[in-house]
Amino acid sequence: MTDIDRQFAQAQIDVKELRERPGNLTLLRLYALFKQASIGDVQGEKPGFTDIAGKYKYEAWSALKGTPVDTAKQHYVELVESLRRGEAS
To answer: Dihedral (C-alpha) 47, 52, 54, 56: value to the nearest 10 degrees?
Structure first.
């Protein structure tokens, strides 16, 4: 397991232990980074207009298309660390 893999795994634990729930835009960013880091580029069809949350999630993930997996992991780790320090919301 590489160092970034260990950091990514720890960040997944840390994000569940945050004192405050992040705002919706930050949650979308976390979701998109996690998906890009775990799966890679967006897959499947874009949800229809009746699935608003699904549509936003798809679009957030799609915006990261082409981002290397390790880069997405690093950004996820950095975002979680900034949330833990109270620097992001």
So the answer is: 100
Write the single-letter amino acid at 79: L
> How far does Cα 50 stand from its chain's mean position?
23
Whole-number Cα distances in Å, 5 to 32, 54, 84 = 17, 27, 19
pLDDT per residue, tens digit, the chain (89 aa), is: 899 999 999 999 999 999 999 999 999 999 999 999 999 999 999 999 899 999 999 999 999 999 999 999 999 999 999 999 988 77
Q: Which CATH class is domain 3-84?
A: mainly alpha
| 54 within 8 A of 47, measured Cβ to Cβ | yes
The domain spans of the chain are 3-84
